[in-house]
Amino acid sequence: MVCRLEFEIYQLKNNVISLAVLTQDLPNIGMALIKKKLSAKNVPINKWYQSNFLKKVINPFIELQYNNGILLGAHQQNILVEFDNQLNILHTHYRDWE
Question: What's the pLDDT tens digit per position in 59-84?
């Protein structure tokens, strides 16, 4: 329930959503939210994953550790991704890391 509420709040603010909400199967549709959104726009999930998710979410996370020795402990609920209308990831925000 909390994730659903968070999604509704962030969706109203520049298409920002937590990674947990994005990848979790939603009970009312039986699939992950990102899969539903990509399917609606006829975007292949594998192409989106490689061109957007890995480059904009995972690579910065790894590069920060490799280049600067900074290790973030953010879980999926603390990684926020911001999209444009074509579902391209514009920014990744890491919060609550130690």
Answer: 988 888 899 888 877 788 888 888 88
Residue 94's DSSP bridge partners are 79
Instruction: Give the angle subtended at the CA of 55 by the CAs of 8 and 86, to the nearest 5°.
Output: 45
Helix/strand/coil percentages in the chain, nearest 5: 50, 20, 30
Residue ranges in the chain assigned as alpha helix (H): 2-11, 19-23, 33-40, 45-48, 59-68
**Nearest alpha carbon to residue 32 among 97, 92, 93, 87:** 87
The one-character DSSP state at 12 is: T
Distance of CA 62 to the CA centre of its chain: 16
Return the DSSP state at 77.
Answer: G
Give the phi and the psi of residue 55 in degrees, each rounded to 5. Answer: -70, -40
15-51 pLDDT, tens digit each: 888 888 888 888 888 888 889 889 999 999 999 999 8
